[in-house]
Design goal:
InterPro entries: UreF, UreF_sf. The chain is an all-alpha fold and about 240 residues long. It is built from twelve helices and no strands.
Length: about 240
């Protein structure tokens, strides 16, 4: 049987962006639950506007750009660069909730990658030896999800354009799912929101692909405050 490389790449992308991926993304709302509880987000329009601003000005284009840097580091077998960007990403997290969520999801994805691919590959051994693991969380260290996503995408030969778009789509669909569970939205409205933001996802992906190291900046103080407040929210569905 002849396997079409493009079709295999698509299957791999669908797998690592699937809601069924056992990394725990469904457990987090990135402050969205707090915004819903404070009635800042109550309608489809509210949700669209919030997500659109995050796609353009928030942290997600930067996070995707870091995933692409991890991707290139794997392709060039440059582990020191990989570690640099992992440390950079951990240091720039403004809310502890987001940082811990990123570490937990990143290490879950790395564990899955280790189980799915060739464990005898020397690169696998190098990465697992040098990157922080779950036991390092208590010491203020961890492997960020964007770094893990870049590693996995590169090892599966998913091209950079699809890696970028897949990462953004996975982020957006998770937050829409969180909104559907936090406010009286139906699932159909959730899908309509994703559909409406298709162009914004494409634009955000292009921003991520084009950003230079000295252009990694964002304006996400609203989301950061929401995450910080969510940590002490009395009643909640999502993890802190």
């Amino acid at each position: 049987m002849i396997i079409n490389p493009a079709s295999l790449q698509l299957l791999r992308l669908l797998q690592i962006t699937s809601p069924a991926l056992p990394v725990g993304a469904y457990s987090y709302s990135e402050g969205l639950e707090y915004l819903c509880s404070q009635k800042i987000i109550q309608t489809e329009s509210d949700l669209c506007n919030w997500l659109r601003r995050e796609l353009q000005f928030g942290f997600i284009p930067n996070e995707t750009a870091i995933a692409l840097r991890a991707y290139q580091a794997i392709k060039s077998h440059n582990i020191s660069t990989l570690i640099y960007w992992n440390d950079w990403l951990s240091a720039t997290r403004e809310a502890e909730e987001v940082r811990l969520a990123s570490w937990q999801m990143g290490q879950s994805l790395m564990k899955l990658w280790w189980q799915l691919t060739d464990r005898q590959n020397p690169l696998h051994t190098s990465i697992h030896t040098l990157l922080p693991t779950t036991k390092d969380n208590s010491q203020g260290k961890g492997c960020n999800y964007a770094i893990a996503f870049g590693i996995v995408a590169a090892s599966l030969d998913i091209d950079p354009d699809n890696t970028s778009l897949g990462y953004i789509y996975s982020w957006l669909s998770n937050l829409v799912s969180a909104a559907v569970r936090s406010v009286p939205f139906g699932q159909t409205i959730g899908q309509q929101v994703i559909f409406q933001l298709s162009g914004d996802m494409l634009n955000s992906s292009q921003l991520s692909l084009q950003r230079l190291d000295n252009e990694l900046e964002w304006c996400g103080w609203g989301a950061s405050l929401a995450c910080a407040n969510h940590e002490t929210q009395y009643s909640r569905l999502f993890r802190s």
